[in-house]
Amino acid sequence: MAEIGTTRIKRGLAEMFKGGVIMDVTTVDQARIAEEAGAVSVMALERIPADIRKEGGVARAADPGLVEQIMEAVSIPVMAKVRIGHISEARILEHMGVDFIDESEVLTPADVVYHIDKWQFKIPFVCGARNLGEALRRISEGAAMIRTKGEPGTGDVSEAVTHMRVLMNEIRKVQSMPEDELVVEAKDLGVNVDLLREVRTLGRLPVVNFAAGGIATPADAALMMTLGADGVFVGSGIFKSADPLPRAKAIVAATTYWDDPKVLFEVSKGLKEGMSGIDARTLVELDKMQVRDS
Amino acid sequence: MTIGVLALQGDFREHMNMIRSLGVQVQLVRFPEEVALVNGLIIPGGESTTIGKLMVKYGLDKAIIERFTAGRLALYGTCAGMIVLARNIEGNESQPHLGLLDVTVRRNAFGRQKESSEEDLDVEGLDTPFHALFIRGPVIVRTGPSVKVLAKVAEGPVYVQQGMLLASSFHPELGRDTRVHQRFVRLSEQSLNQEV
Questions:
Q1: Which end of chain A, N or C, is more open, meaning fewer C-beta atoms within 10 Å of its C-beta?
Q2: Which residues of B are identified as catalytic?
Q3: Considering its fold, how many domains does chain B have in total?
Q4: Which residue in B46, B116, B171 is closest to A4 by CB distance?
């Protein structure tokens, strides 16, 4: 008998995204441009993070009608965001057959304490994390994929770099940890000791880990791959730039050939202006999306 | 002998690890000149449109077709790789592909991710079933006369061979059963013999 929605099937789809670029889109036309550029998936949402940041107010899941149109327009997998803890927004997306749900700090959290129990769903979830503790707590809740948070909508890659550095550093530390120290580390991180043991054995997270939040150029994508990301999400960086298609294609190539400066040079030159961006250090704590959950 | 894994996008590391576990040398392939180094090439699971576009942009399609046509390369495609190998892609002929395997594939034939599944599959030549993972997988809807069907499901063939070409809709690289990869290693040995 065929079994659907198993952990292996959910995590397996994330494995297929590796070495690829997942692009934020807000219209059918943008989704088609993303597919044309070679995106492995599109993230359908109502406003990209840069606009959410600028316009303020409560950011909710996109109109399901828009998500549906995008699903019909492209052949690649479609993701959509729900508010943290918003079980019902997620159920609507699952019913529609969205391929992946992002329980995202980019939207205004619906539940300030609890995340969604993602084991209850047949479709996979991706969640943000700034460090190993956050990543493993999300995996314990059923996340089939992790993305480092960065600071969305800024076009400043520094926070994504910090989060990837921290995560990788913590994994390396765990790898050399004896059993007695591992038990205390699990307690300190607030994570299951078996899951931490699995990280020690694998030398990585047990699910695919992408980079996100502030990636705006081909070199940014290559940098995140260099630091150990399995792939990248690009939010505002493409459709807030002057000429999205060439930039999107260049970011796709840079994610594949991240360690080859010759290719990076070829794809980086002559791209029109990138998104203007915000220096993440100038944001006050209240304006940071990354601190909305932990 | 060396088996290559096309490393443009997708789960190429899983294929690499599996081939390595069989004691065979592995080469990741991202540039046309690397195709000449291998006797067999695996096109992994991933997004077929992404892999196809990068393959054409960086000239890998020509290098692969040339070496295959000379009888010096065996090819194995999983999922997206099967689509890339196929002669026809239903409803999407403009998508870049190699067109070597004489079949027509239907992309996402089972539906979207929520219809993705795992099941035990009876495979020709194997004593026990193969546990197969289908992830937004394709199905073959037309097979040419020289294509041998090795396994099928209700929707159609999911594992086929045509001479030096092997293709599966499912993902053996995500499990521990190495029997499909063993078959491909044996196939690649044949291309090695052509070399002498």
A1: N
A2: 79, 171, 173
A3: 1
A4: B116
